Amino acid sequence: MSNDKKHNRPKYSLEFKQDATKLVLEKGYSQQQAADHLGISQSALGRWVRAERKPSANESTLKKSCLNLGDHDELIRLRQENEQLRMEREILKKAAVFFAKEAEYPQGTSKVRIYSGATEDVSRDRAVSSDAGEHQCLLCLV
Questions:
Q1: What are phi and psi of 105, to 5 degrees?
Q2: pTM of the model
């Protein structure tokens, strides 16, 4: 017989995990008692407790980076946000190249300058002249 259903691990919120670890670390419950009371597995609670415990002197020399539950969740969130921003930046780069090729300027020149730190309100792209008399397109990313 094959197991057609995959066992999905339940997702617990950060607050739930922190409250569960407080039962063990601060209230004096054993891991087994707390796990039974909350209806979770003892192994999951054990992982959460290890993540929340302050590393001792021996452990801190062995493990260089030990994240607690809050730091771990924030790290995951920031990594996802970082990946999203990278994708958006790549899309904007491609769009800038596309519009630079499509734009027609006097004397057959087309240049795009991407400027993300605009100090003035620029509501749309505009052509500007440089000191050399060349026309350039200013693309402001806000």
A1: -125, 160
A2: 0.42
Length of the chain: 142
Distance CA 71, CA 16 (A): 15
Helix and strand totals (H; E) in the chain: 5, 3
Query: Which element (helix H / strand E) includes 112?
Result: strand 112-115
Cβ-defined contacts of 10-16 (< 8 Å, 24+): 10/40, 12/40, 12/44, 14/69, 14/70, 14/73
Torsion of CA 67, 69, 70, 71, to 10 degrees: 20
Q: How many CA atoms lie within 13 A of 95 on its CB side?
A: 11
The pLDDT tens digits of the residues spanning 11-64 come to 888 889 989 999 998 888 999 999 999 999 999 999 999 888 876 555 545 554
Mutual angle of helices 69-102 and 42-52, in 10-degree steps: 80
CA distance 55 to 24: 16
